[in-house]
Design brief:
Rossmann fold, 10 helices, alpha/beta, 3-stranded parallel sheet, globular, 11 strands
Length: 291
């Protein structure tokens, strides 16, 4: 069993990005600029945004964080997004999800200029991805692709089971793993909450991408020997031995499954850092397209 170490790969990618940014700014060009909008006081969102801002600092990006109380109206938020869309000094914009219930998430995602959509959520980017056209890929799937590339995981002709069908991970991941490219050319099965006898699919999988949000649901008796597992889950479970009172686990029962795997990503330290690295890569790409 070998770990798919997203933490070390993200550090490597950040070093490459910083070198490129330093080269750009040394010639008098401005640094790439990423803006984040954070609404309310969701602890997980606070953690994610803080990590994104810190990563921007590490690679030499300019970053701006707009914080709003959960009572902000949808109209006020959309107005701010349109202001950022019109600002040519800003290359990337992310609105941290989830949003308060009175704000239409779809409307917010669609209002962000697809050329500044570094999360890769805009319908234009999703549509171009589905057609194999140049686009900004969703950050988490893009990070997973980078992880598979780094460890030279063979994907062509393999049976890949994606557990979960969200627009953020599962659905785009299934498209990318089936595309005529590397990583890709896999035979893809999508499983979800309505799938009957999940084990009958996972036991025949060469590659499993677990993104369903159920703590440790994938057990050892559900996978075959030699499987490659990418665990996208980030679940908090109570743990009295931890100062925080909880610990993070994935959608995979890591301890029971690891000895059957050829490769497996840990939680934390696997997909999470790669999502942020992909976000930085997307921001650098939007910057370069705008220059």
């Amino acid at each position: 069993m070998q770990l798919l170490d997203g933490k070390s790969l993200s550090t490597k990618l950040k070093t490459h990005i910083k070198t490129e940014v330093d080269s750009l700014t040394s010639t008098g060009k401005r640094a790439p600029h990423l803006v984040a909008i954070l609404i309310g006081a969701n602890p997980a969102s606070e953690t994610y945004v803080a990590a994104k801002i810190k990563s921007c600092e590490e690679v030499g990006f300019q970053s701006t964080l707009y914080r709003y109380d959960a009572s902000i109206t949808e109209a006020e938020l959309l107005q701010k997004i349109n202001e950022i869309n019109a600002d040519s000094s800003i290359d990337g914009l992310l609105v941290q999800l989830p949003l308060p219930k009175h704000i239409n998430e779809t409307k917010v995602v669609e209002t962000v200029d697809y050329r500044k959509d570094v999360d890769g959520f805009h319908p234009t980017n999703i549509g171009r991805m589905a057609k194999g056209l140049p686009c900004t890929l969703p950050a988490t799937p893009y990070g997973i692709l980078k992880l598979l590339e780094e460890y030279k995981i063979e994907t062509a002709g393999k049976h890949c089971v994606v557990i979960g069908r969200s627009h953020i991970v599962g659905s785009p991941m299934s498209i990318l793993m089936a595309r005529n490219d590397y990583p890709g050319n896999a035979t893809v099965t999508i499983c979800h909450s309505k799938t009957k006898d999940l084990s009958s699919f996972t036991r025949n999988a060469d590659i499993i991408i677990a993104a369903v949000g159920i703590p440790q649901m994938l057990k050892a008796d559900m996978v075959k020997d030699g499987v490659v597992i990418v665990d996208v889950g980030t679940n908090r479970i109570e743990d009295a031995t931890k100062k925080s009172g909880f610990r993070l686990v994935g959608d995979v029962d890591f301890d029971s499954v690891k000895d059957k795997c050829s490769y497996i990503s840990p939680v934390p330290g696997g997909v999470g850092p790669m999502t942020i690295a992909a976000l930085l890569l997307n921001t650098l790409d939007t910057y370069k397209r705008g220059e």
